[in-house]
Specification:
The protein is mainly alpha-helical. The protein is about 70% helix and about 0% strand. The chain contains 18 helices and no strands. The chain is globular and about 65 Å long.
C-alpha cells in the first residue's frame, strides 16, 4: 500500500479510529499485528505467509539461542537463523541473477545450457524484514539483547510493524521491541505527536514535491538515452540525485512521523547526506539504519579497521555486498564498487595530505567546506548512474554521450515544466537542510505551535500547487 495513495489515506483513518478505541486495552497489540499484515498483504496476500515463516523461524531460533545450555548450541541456532533468512533472500532475489550470470559465462566458453531461470515474483520489502529478523538473532547471540521475546504475537508485531515494514528504517529489536512490549503510551506529550506530524508533512513534501517531479525528468532520459545530449544527461543525473533522496528520505520521514504520532520512536535514517564532506561522511548520513547494520554485523566482525589493509578490504566487501543488497544486477555491484573505490581514494588523499610538507593556506574555511560539499555531491551523483540504469549497456551509452561533451541547450527543453518545479522544491529543501545543518532545528523546536503550523501550511500549499500527484511507487519498494 503506497503512502501516497487514496487507499492508504482510508487505511490510516481506520487505523487511527481503532487506535483511539483500543489503545488502553489488551486488544491493541493483536489489532496492530492484524493491521500490519493487512497493510503488507495489500500488494500480494500470498507473501504474508513468507513474512510469517521468517518471523516464526527467527522467534524460535531466538528462544533456542537464549536458552542454549552452551555456546555451541547457541551458535548452531544462530546459523539456522542466518541460513534460513539468507536462503529465502537468495532464492527470491538472486536465484535468477546467478543463473543468468552462469549461463552467460558458459556461453562465452562455448557451452550452451539453455534457459534455466524461474518466474519468481520479488516480495516487496523482503530485504528489509529479513535484515530486521537477522539482527534479532544476531543480537541475542552477541549479547546485545539481554533476553528474548517470549510472546510470538509481540515479536510478530515488531517484525511486521507497518510504518517501516517495506522500506525501513531497519529497526533493531532492542529499540522497538520494548515499545511493543509496553504497548501504546497514554501520556505522550502533544509536542511529541505534533513533531511527528511535521515529519510526515516534510516527508510528503520530499516525495510528492521533489522526488516525483524529478522522476518525470529522469525517466524520459533513461527510457531513450540516445535522444539526449550531454547537458540533458547531466541534468538527468542531478535530478536523480534529488529524486532518490526525496523519495527514500521522504518514505523514512513518513514512517518515522506516523510512528511518532502514535507514540513510537524509530531511528533516524537520513541526516542531510548531500552536505557530506567526504564519502565516509556521506555513508554516515545516508540510509543510516543500513550502514550501521553492515558496520555492526559485517564490517566489525571481519576485523573492522585494525589495520589499513583490513580497513580497505572490509570496506570493499561491505560496499559490494551493499550493492548486491540493493538489487540483483551487475549495475548495483558496479555502484558498490565505485563507492568502495572513492572511499579508498579518499583515504589515500588524506594519508598523502598528512605526509606532505606543503599546506594549503589562504582558503577560507567556509569556502573550502562548500567546495568539498559540491565535489562530493557530484561524485555521488555520478555513482547514481549505474544505480538507476537498467543495464550496463545503458550505463556505457550515457557515459559515452557525456564524454562527447555536447552541452548545447536544445530547442524546447524537454520536461521544462517538471524541471522548473524541481528547482522550486530543491531550493526549499536546500534552504531548510542548510538551516538544520547550521543548528537551526534547536531554535525551531522552541517556536510556538502557531508559527510551526503556519510553516507546515506553507509546505502543504506549495505541495498542492506544484506537487506531482501521479501516485508513483517509492523506489525502495523494489528492494
Amino acid at each position: 500500500m503506497n503512502f501516497t495513495s487514496l487507499e492508504f489515506l482510508l487505511f490510516i483513518t481506520a487505523f487511527t479510529a481503532a487506535f483511539m478505541a483500543l489503545a488502553r486495552t489488551r486488544l491493541f497489540t493483536p489489532m496492530l499485528l492484524v493491521v500490519s499484515y493487512v497493510f503488507y498483504g495489500y500488494w500480494d496476500y500470498r507473501f504474508c505467509a513468507l513474512l510469517a515463516l521468517t518471523t516464526v523461524t527467527d522467534f524460535y531460533c531466538g528462544l533456542r539461542i537464549a536458552d542454549a545450555p552452551n555456546r555451541a548450541t547457541a551458535k548452531m541456532f544462530m546459523h539456522v537463523s542466518l541460513g534460513s533468512n539468507l536462503s529465502i533472500l537468495f532464492f527470491f532475489k538472486y536465484f535468477n541473477f546467478f543463473i543468468d550470470s552462469a549461463e552467460v559465462a558458459l556461453a562465452a566458453a562455448g557451452i550452451d545450457v539453455g534457459r534455466r531461470t524461474l518466474d519468481i515474483i520479488l516480495p516487496v520489502g523482503i530485504s528489509f524484514y529479513v535484515f530486521q529478523n537477522l539482527s534479532y538473532a544476531l543480537d541475542l547471540y552477541l549479547g546485545h539483547l539481554d533476553k528474548p521475546e517470549r510472546s510470538l504475537m509481540r515479536y510478530a508485531t515488531f517484525v511486521a510493524f507497518f510504518p517501516q515494514l517495506v522500506a525501513g528504517p531497519i529497526v533493531r529489536a532492542r529499540d522497538l521491541l520494548p515499545q511493543i512490549q509496553d504497548g501504546p503510551k497514554h501520556d505522550v506529550p502533544f509536542a511529541f505527536r505534533f513533531a511527528g506530524l511535521e515529519k510526515v508533512i516534510w516527508g510528503y513534501f520530499l516525495k510528492i514535491g521533489l522526488a516525483d517531479n524529478a522522476a518525470a525528468v529522469v525517466d524520459a532520459r533513461f527510457a531513450q538515452p540516445e535522444f539526449y545530449n550531454a547537458l540533458n544527461h547531466v541534468i538527468g543525473l542531478i535530478c536523480f540525485s534529488l529524486q532518490i533522496y526525496g523519495d527514500f528520505a521522504g518514505y523514512s520521514l513518513i514512517a518515522i512521523g506516523l510512528s511518532q504520532i502514535f507514540g513510537y520512536t524509530l531511528c533516524q535514517n537520513f541526516a542531510r547526506p548531500y552536505f557530506a564532506i567526504g564519502m565516509r561522511d556521506f555513508w554516515r548520513r545516508w540510509h543510516m539504519s543500513l550502514s550501521t547494520w553492515f558496520r555492526d554485523y559485517v564490517y566489525i566482525p571481519l576485523g573492522g579497521s585494525r589495520t589499513q589493509w583490513l580497513r580497505v578490504r572490509n570496506m570493499t566487501i561491505v560496499m559490494l555486498v551493499s550493492g548486491l543488497w540493493h538489487g540483483a544486477n551487475w549495475t548495483f555491484i558496479l555502484w558498490g564498487a565505485m563507492h568502495a573505490a572513492l572511499m579508498a581514494a579518499e583515504d589515500a588523499v588524506r594519508w598523502l595530505g598528512s605526509k606532505s610538507p606543503v599546506r594549503l593556506t589562504g582558503i577560507p574555511l567556509a569556502a573550502g567546506r562548500l567546495l568539498t560539499i559540491v565535489v562530493v555531491f557530484l561524485l555521488v551523483t555520478l555513482t547514481w548512474l549505474p544505480f538507476r540504469a537498467d543495464s550496463m549497456h545503458t550505463v556505457w551509452t550515457i557515459l559515452g554521450i557525456i564524454a562527447d561533451a555536447d552541452f548545447s541547450l536544445p530547442r524546447g527543453m524537454q520536461q521544462m515544466s517538471y524541471l522548473m518545479r524541481v528547482v522550486v522544491f530543491a531550493g526549499v529543501v536546500l534552504m531548510i537542510d542548510a538551516l538544520i545543518e547550521m543548528g537551526a532545528s534547536r531554535r525551531y523546536a522552541g517556536v510556538n505551535v502557531v508559527a510551526r503550523s503556519m510553516a507546515c501550511s506553507t509546505l502543504v500549499i506549495l505541495l498542492l500547487l506544484f506537487g506531482n500527484f501521479a501516485n508513483r511507487s517509492f523506489i525502495y519498494f523494489q528492494f
